[in-house]
Design a protein that fits this description.
- The protein has helices spanning 3-19, 37-44, 48-51, 67-70, 88-97, 110-122, 160-170, 190-193, 196-200, 209-218, and strands spanning 78-82, 102-107, 128-132, 145-151, 171-184, 207-208, 222-232, 244-252.
- It has 257 residues and is of the alpha/beta class.
- Strands 1, 2, 3, 4, 5, 6, 7 and 8 form an eight-stranded mixed β-sheet that branches.
- Strand 1 (78-82), helix 5 (88-97) and strand 2 (102-107) form a beta-alpha-beta unit.
Length: 257
């Protein structure tokens, strides 16, 4: 399937979510069940205590992990979130990097960027910025970011190789990539890969686990490591779909590059 069709479908899907109140998950058709955004976030790995310290509207139940908690963020760092949505991971990162650091979110959906920037203004965040852009073509300077995080977004891209190459480009030498994403146990059926609704629901774009890791290596990163893994359940009538997993992967850009 052509990438422009996928991008259009995904953008439309998340534009609708941004405009809705009381969103429960990325699965607009209810594949993940009717749960609150807070419950969805806790199930994905966030602590209630951390979530109490960020704008509650940013908690939209759209992720599959908590990469910011695994990124070992330090005061003064510049952190970039690929596909930042309502800003949950950016706001959490902003607390960790402190006033001397900066947390930047990139999202291709205008409604999400507008919402996140509004929340940042209303809550007085001085070290947060949200920019409109695509993760395949980041509006970020070369070698300018200490850490990149992403939460269940790279699987939405039809060109994951380009996403990881862009991530490598903007990272400083010695920088790290920590991403949460959905991967598959085996290749997905062609019918599933051609389903635009399932693409938007973080399913059809899932790569095989080993292919996902090799794509990171081909972009230039060294030693990608799965630091967390859990099974990801989704309702589907396809018996040959195989298992899906939510993983958190860490990789590094060599310090001499």
């Amino acid at each position: 399937m052509k990438g422009d069709k996928i991008k259009k479908a995904v953008k439309h899907h998340y534009s609708r979510i941004a405009e809705q109140s009381g969103r429960t998950s990325c699965c607009a058709t209810g594949c993940c069940g009717e749960v609150s955004p807070l419950a969805e976030a806790v199930a994905a790995g966030y602590s209630k205590e951390d979530l109490e310290h960020i704008p509650q509207e940013a908690i939209m139940g759209l992720g599959c992990g908590n990469p910011a908690a695994c990124a070992e963020l330090k005061p003064g760092e510049t952190v970039l979130d690929l596909g930042s949505g309502g800003g949950i991971d950016v706001f959490l990162a902003a607390i960790k990097v402190g006033p001397q650091g900066k947390a930047i979110g990139i999202d291709m959906t205008e409604q999400m960027v507008d919402k996140a920037n509004r929340l940042a203004r209303e809550k007085g965040y001085q070290n947060v910025e949200f920019r409109l852009g695509e993760i395949e073509k980041l509006p970020i300077s070369d070698s300018s970011v200490d850490t990149i995080i992403s939460n269940c977004v790279i699987n939405l891209s039809a060109d994951k190789s380009k996403v990881f190459r862009e991530a490598y480009r903007v990272l400083k030498p010695g920088g790290k990539l920590v991403v949460s994403d959905i991967v598959s146990e085996r290749p997905l059926p062609r019918k599933m890969q051609d389903d635009l609704v399932s693409w938007s629901q973080c399913v059809s774009g899932a790569l095989e686990r080993n292919e996902y890791l090799s794509t990171i290596v081909k972009a230039g990163f060294s030693e990608p490591t799965i630091i967390s893994q859990r099974e990801f359940y989704v309702e589907t009538g396809m018996k040959k779909l195989g298992r899906l997993f939510s993983i958190i992967v860490r990789a590094n850009k060599k310090s001499n590059e």
